[in-house]
Amino acid sequence: MNDLLLRALRRETVSRPPVWMMRQAGRYLPEYRAVRAKSDFLTMCRTPELAVEVTLQPVDLIGVDAAIIFSDILVIPEAMGMHLTLDEGIGPQFPTPLREPADVERLRTVVPEERLDYMLAALRMARRALDGRVPLIGFAGAPWTLAAYMVEGRGTKQFAVAKRMLFEQPAMAHALLDRLAVAVGDFLVAQVSAGAQVVQLFDSWAGALAPDEFRAFGLPYLARAARRAREAGAPVIVFAPGAGWALDEIAAATGADAIGVDWHTAPAAARRQLAPFPVAMQGNLDPCALYAAPSEIRARTQAMIRQFGPTGHIVNLGHGILPDVPPAHARAFVDAVKEWEWTPERVAACR
Ligand code: CP3
């Protein structure tokens, strides 16, 4: 059993760090596109056999040290009763976004075992299919990121409509975030019961918020969901891209086992900020670096490993892998990590 991820999360000494990639089950793989050609995205999410098939692809084809269950962060709003569409080239959309307090009151309370059972079934099936080869990661979107989508209706650069709600209708924002914190926490607990060995919270739009708003509308709800999930007994990774200035506050508020580091943040800066906290770090190669030649990918990846140091580092990209990266380059990234060894000389040079 390859338990490098679990050991790095406990900040144990490892001969090399574990590696996986956010969005590793996805369109850069021809094998994913072949499955996707026959079913639409939401059907894939809701059909455990298909979800498990693409969950295993990066383990088999790229050699990553963890599997992340194939699904999406937007399944929670969908389970709360919002109609979700995913059109080719536009991305996911809610055609009827939330606009007033009554819209929030109308949202259904999510019982994961009912409306999200397909993802729990996929986790159970993936755990069996993996048979201990690598750990299985579950995930959910963080409350602010889900709220931003639910109010905006789609992904945008600024999330201006969602941010307008924070200033114009803060009570509505808090009511929505409160319900989401419960739903996200419950869902992560259910995922752990279904077999997820690690869970990650994606606060993908944290960077849309200024510090005061992140502290008022982002962090408290992220922390509630993370703390609830931790009680279920699995390690929690919190990734809030664009909030690199707040890594220490995120570690303190969430009690997370690992903090994701985005590609804007230098590893040394992340280490400094997180030094007082008992946390591992995950990241953070710029996803665009995978466009470089394999020899260059190898050099940059190993330089990054050195910078994060010998304990408590999970190698990942600093955000999701891009759809047009050649699979051979993803493999070069993973192989560069597998070739690395933390020799006593290298460890000593890091102090
Ligand atoms: O990491 C994995 O491989 C597991 C599966 C996974 C997907 N989405 C599959 C997916 C995970 C963990 C996510 C999380 C997710 N979804 C996030 C957070 C991660 C991040 O990048 O910050 C966000 C913001 C979403 C919302 C979302 N879903 C968008 C914006 C899009 C369209 C654009 C895009 O990047 O693909 C999706 C669709 C989606 N989710 C696809 C996949 C494989 C593409 C669907 C297709 O095949 O057309």
Architecture blueprint of SSEs:
Blueprint: H1 4-9, H2 30-38, H3 41-46, H4 48-61, E1 67-68, H5 75-79, E2 85-87, E3 91-93, H6 101-105, H7 112-115, H8 117-130, E4 136-141, H9 143-152, H10 160-168, H11 170-194, E5 198-202, H12 211-231, E6 236-239, H13 247-254, E7 258-260, H14 267-274, E8 280-285, H15 294-308, E9 313-317, H16 327-339, H17 344-349
Parallel strand pairs: 1-4, 4-5, 5-6, 6-7, 7-8, 8-9
Antiparallel strand pairs: 2-3
The structure holds coproporphyrinogen III.
Coproporphyrinogen III binds next to strand 3.
Summarize the structure in words.
- The chain has 351 residues and is of the alpha/beta class.
- Helix content is 51%, strand content 11%.
- The strands form two sheets. It has a seven-stranded parallel β-sheet with strand order 1-4-5-6-7-8-9.
- β5 (198-202), α12 and β6 form a beta-alpha-beta unit.
- α10 packs across α11 (170-194) and α11 (170-194) packs parallel to α12.
- The protein starts with a helix and ends with a helix.
- Bound molecules: coproporphyrinogen III.
- Coproporphyrinogen III binds next to β3.
